[in-house]
Amino acid sequence: MTSTPIRIGVQLQPQHAEYSDIRDAVLRAEDLGVDVIFNWDHFYPLYGDPDGKHFECWTMLGAWAEQTSNVEIGALVTCNSYRNPELLADMARTVDHMSNGRLIFGIGSGWFEKDYTEYGYDFGTAGGRLNKLADDLPRIESRWAKLNPAPVRKIPVMIGGGGEKKTLRLVAQHADLWHSFSDLETLQRKSAILDQHCADVGRDPSEIARSVGTPDGDPAEVGPALLAAGASLFTVGVGGPDYDLDKLKAWIDWRNSL
Q1: d(CA 26, CA 53)
Q2: What sign does the dihedral 226-254-106-183 (CA atoms) show?
Q3: pLDDT tens string for the chain (258 positions)?
Q4: SS in 3 state form for the chain?
Q5: How far apart are CA 53 and CA 49, in angstroms?
Q6: What angle do CA 223, 240, 70 make, to 5 degrees?
Q7: How many CB atoms lie within 10 A of CB 95?
Q8: Distance between CA 192 and CA 184 in Å, rounded?
């Protein structure tokens, strides 16, 4: 993983803000030189007022595709439960074209129960949601191969989560990127488990980039150990309504200093 370019992402959490605030934060982040801008796929805020302002993921990604020029965009992560997998594949292909091949397809099995109950989805069990993700990922990949026009590029798949038996095996089978909010020790342990899953399915683990949420602290002090553990995409979470990008700038400055 050491030869993988170091990249910096930002997750602009689409909560507690007017859309104009989010749009402005996207422009500011791109101007700073960020590599990837993510949102998330929820219907209600995860922090603060649980009934605060919030906007939908994929509609927003379509707007970002037109608004931006250089950065990659995507959801960190989209919830597999909320849309038919064939439709989701078509939505992703469309945003891929709108952005001229800059979409990262982040996906997970889902976990936020309020989204499910308020919008009428069956919450079920964590195992059941993971089993459905396992069933749906091949359908998504198959649909991409059938669509006309085809995606601009092989859309990179990023799977989020750290489940050692099911999730990491899905990463080994399907993903180009694996995202977790792991600390250093957890990243090292789960990355080794992912390597074993890759061996089991006949996959070169160096084909899967490791993505982590950025911890607190000076990037020059906390970044090198994560880098040595295999992380190559470092994503800063930023909430509304102010979208303070000072921490993001510090991580971009660290990347630029290497």
Answers
A1: 18
A2: positive
A3: 335 699 999 999 999 999 999 999 999 999 999 999 999 999 999 999 999 999 999 999 999 999 999 999 999 999 999 999 999 999 999 999 999 999 999 999 999 999 999 999 999 999 999 999 999 999 999 999 999 999 999 999 999 999 999 999 999 999 999 999 889 999 999 999 999 999 999 999 999 999 999 999 999 999 999 999 999 999 999 999 999 999 999 999 999 999
A4: CCCCCCEEEEEECCECCCHHHHHHHHHHHHHHCCCEEEECCCCCCCCCCCCCCECCHHHHHHHHHHHCCCCEEEECCEEHHHCCHHHHHHHHHHHHHHCCCCEEEEEECCCCHHHHHHHCCCCCCHHHHHHHHHHHHHHHHHHHHHCCCCCCCCCCEEEECCCCCCHHHHHHHHCCEEEECCCHHHHHHHHHHHHHHHHHHCCCHHHCEEEEECCCCCHHHHHHHHHHCCEEEEEEEECCCCCCCHHHHHHHHHHHHC
A5: 9
A6: 60
A7: 24
A8: 12
Q: Which residue has the tokens 């590029």?
A: 153
Q: Name the one residue in this structure whose structure tokens are 């927003």.
A: 60
Q: Which amino acid is at 80?
A: N
257, two tokens = 């200093």
